[in-house]
Amino acid sequence: MSAITFAIGNQKGGVGKTTTTINLGAALASFGIPTLLVDMDTQSNATSSLGIEKKPGAGVYEPLLSGSDLSGRVVATNEKNLWIIPSELDLAAAELELSSQENYLVKLRDSLHNLANNYGLQAILIDCPPTLGLLSMNSLCAADYLIITLQSEYLALEGLSQITGVIQQLKESGANPSLELGGIAMTMYDNRTRLSYEVWQEVNQHYPSEIFRTAIPRTVRLSEAPSFGKTIFQYDPNGVGAKAYLALAKEVKQRFFV
Ligand code: ATP
Ligand code: MG
After folding, report:
1. Is 49 close to ligand 1, i.e. is its CB under 6 Å away?
2. CA distances from 250 to 160, 163, 213, 215 (A)
3. pTM
4. Which of 29, 93, 118, 184 could disulfide-pair with 81, CB 3.0 to 4.6 Å?
5. Do the beta carbons of residue 149 and residue 114 sit within 8 Å?
6. CB distance 120 to ligand 1 below 6 Å
7. Which amino acid residue places its CA nearest to atom 8 of ligand 1?
8. Which protein residue's CA is at the shortest distance from atom 14 of ligand 1?
């Protein structure tokens, strides 16, 4: 079985992409699904959230440009079945350089393809930056599915048509004909407010088959865990954040892996 690749994206900043990449990835890994995270954000939040040091030359930069083997870039995390290709400082420069290359949209896809086969990976989760630049485009071209994270707040839906439009463009242009919207995960859900519920309802109305039933609650534990270099399952295994990401991962497993 070949790996299923998910880009976790939204061009909006601070909507839970990185938190979801890490904890959804860790939950899938705990189900016995060998999972690779790819940090495509120059902020390197996914890398540092797992307590992994950013080292120049250690990330996706060079393979991204040359299309060379990624296997030397894979780093084990302290969760079983979970690996990461870290981000590094130079990724921003890669974005510039990429634009002058041929086939610049599919560099990441080519590099990841061999890796997945050689390592027996079943899931790849790409943490996208909060822009629709070349690093996000490469991520979307490497992905089978885009999972969008949406903050449960007013105007959450705004910008959604832009990113779903990008899916359409990448499909129609032939850059990634098989890309699909895999799901919408609502994050930072506050069940004490009516607003969170209303936003959930609204998204559900427009995207009934894409929205995941599990909304990730707003909880300070989820925001604290990265500063200890831990996933929520290591930091607060019995809390609501861990329970929610496990439930979300069960939905993902059911939707894509059975
Ligand atoms: P960026 O666009 O900058 O990459 P992002 O979309 O990756 O951001 P995160 O980094 O996951 O978003 O989350 C933004 C901030 O909100 C972080 O400080 C994170 O710890 C916090 N956060 C994320 N999810 C939750 C949650 N469910 N409850 C509380 N805080 C959260
Ligand atoms: Mg992020």
Report:
1. no
2. 25, 25, 11, 13
3. 0.97
4. 29
5. no
6. no
7. 14
8. 14
